[in-house]
Amino acid sequence: NKKAFVELLFWKSPAAVYEMTKGYSSLQEGEGTTRSRVPPWTPQEEQELQELYWKYKEVEGGDIIAAILAHLPTPGRTRRQVVKQLVQM
Predict the structure, then answer these.
(1) C-alpha distances in Å from residue 1, one per residue of 11, 15, 16, 33, 59
(2) Residue 24 Cα distances to 3, 15, 17, 27, 82, angstroms
(3) Backbone phi and psi for residue 65, each to the nearest 5 degrees, phi listed first
(4) 37 partner at 20 to 30 Å CA-CA among 18, 77, 79, 84?
(5) What is the pTM (predicted TM-score) of this model?
(6) How far is CA 54 from the centre of its chain?
(7) In what helix (H) or strand (E) does residue 85 lie, and over which residues does it extend?
């Protein structure tokens, strides 16, 4: 691609760079640009999250999110997911 240098002037995602180097339309359907879906929070998980928040909210000097993550019954949730869900609730 003789005009690839122009594309390098602008910010690219990893998926766009892969397409530039391997050829356009080289990504399979659903790869690269779309992120994997995060499993939705169930009502039971939301209830547990709310209870853990109220339990650890008053702890001084402690990281509330770290305490919640340590006591969440479902593993695999990230800090970012927990914070986002708390803000949404």
Answers:
(1) 18, 17, 14, 22, 59
(2) 14, 10, 10, 8, 36
(3) -65, -40
(4) 18
(5) 0.56
(6) 24
(7) helix 79-88
d(CA 54, CA 48) in angstroms, rounded, equals 10
Q: What is the tens place of the pLDDT at every residue in 24-75? A: 665 654 554 445 577 888 899 999 999 999 988 887 777 888 888 888 887 7
Indicate the number of domains in the chain: 1
Assigned domain for 45 exists: yes
Do the domain assignments include residue 50? yes
User: What are the structure tokens assigned to 86, written together?
Assistant: 């708390």
Task: Show Cβ contacts of residue 72 under 8 Å, excluding neighbours closer than 6 positions.
Answer: 45, 48, 49, 52, 82
What range defines the domain where residue 83 resides? 3-27+38-88
- Which residue is it, tokens 């339309």? 25
In a domain, 32, yes or no: no
